[in-house]
Amino acid sequence: MSILRAFRTAAGLAAALVAIVMFFASTPAQALTRIKDICSIQGVRENQLVGYGLVTGLQGTGDTLRNSPFTEQALQSMLDRLGVNVQGIPMRARNVAAVTVTAELPAFAGLGSHIDVNISSLGDASSLKGGTLLMTPLMGGDGQTYAIAQGPIAVSGIQLQGEAETLTQGVPTAGRIPNGALVERQVPGALKAFPSFTLQLKNPDFKTAALIADAINAFTALRYGKPLATERDLGAVVVKRPPNVQAARFLAEIGDLKVTPDEPARVVVDQRTGTIVIGSNVRISTVAIAHGNLTVRVTEQPQVSQPAPFSNGQTTVVPRTTIQASEQDGHLALLEGADLQTLVRGLNRMGLKPSDIISILQAIKTAGALQAELVVE
């Protein structure tokens, strides 16, 4: 009997409780994952902010104003706003750098809250270590200013330069200001205005969406008396908000529910590093594999030929070429992967290197025996 059918029986609450217990007991405990870890709420997201600013206080590692005219223009504009007239005065300071300031504005961030900002150099500055970011407006995609950033920059990279050698560690032209921006404008919208919520799966899958809807329905039927979730497609589950219930509390309740997300049959290989990741649902049909390497070695050993005595001959170089061909044993192996353990055990028994396994997996996929998606990076 399904969970939803149990809700309609005369037993009512008792039958629903038994159905919930059986639903969660049928899943291995080690595979359970919270819904909020595999889903995000549509419309509840961060917003990207960007700004252009100046960093001062550098120890001669700033922009060369002659090579970075935008830094000089920004410096002149800032001084003009502060009441300092520098028009027509050549500037040769090396303690100023033009930077881009980026940040992410969290959803429903309130006025006066602080967010972290990232700083990166725009000009030819060699290091931002020891610098201070001046007041910089951070704008969103709509051109509105949402935050103001300012403060000393924390730089992890270093650059030491002498007359004959330069030592660079990390990236000294990028840094971070923890809690360096103050939110000045809120993003329009309120959570309580949503009559329903759409849970977006981070890894879309029809079965996972159905499992999430079943888990939420089992909980809401017991708590609120009726199922409230419906799987819309492989990437979204629509959940109605119960009446007279705070949206934040309701999302916290369903976010802690646990399900077992379904894993796609997928093999991911990275040819650069030799990394191979095989999913637990990967299957291989019965296939025979022979893998061997043919090595051909060509060696040049020229020799000097001396003429016979009193023959009026000339000394010449005679080429000597040696060609050797060797082939490693290519054993014919029968491979059948009923599960992940069998597949790995069969590949290890053949004594293959990661590069050889990648080649074999590509050949098996071409032959149609690999019942999984092969992703080559």
UniProtKB/TrEMBL annotation:
Biological process according to GO: bacterial-type flagellum-dependent cell motility
Location of the protein in the cell: Bacterial flagellum basal body
Annotated signal peptide: 1-31
Zinc-finger found in the keyword field: no
Domain of life assignment: Bacteria
Record-linked Pfam families: FlgI
InterPro entries to which the protein is assigned, alphabetical: Flag_FlgI (IPR001782)
A cellular-component GO term for this protein: outer membrane-bounded periplasmic space
Gene Ontology MF term list: structural molecule activity
Keywords from the named record: Bacterial flagellum, Cell projection, Cilium, Flagellum, Periplasm, Signal
Role played: Assembles around the rod to form the L-ring and probably protects the motor/basal body from shearing forces during rotation.
UniProt similarity note: Belongs to the FlgI family.
Protein name: Flagellar P-ring protein
Species name: Segnochrobactrum spirostomi
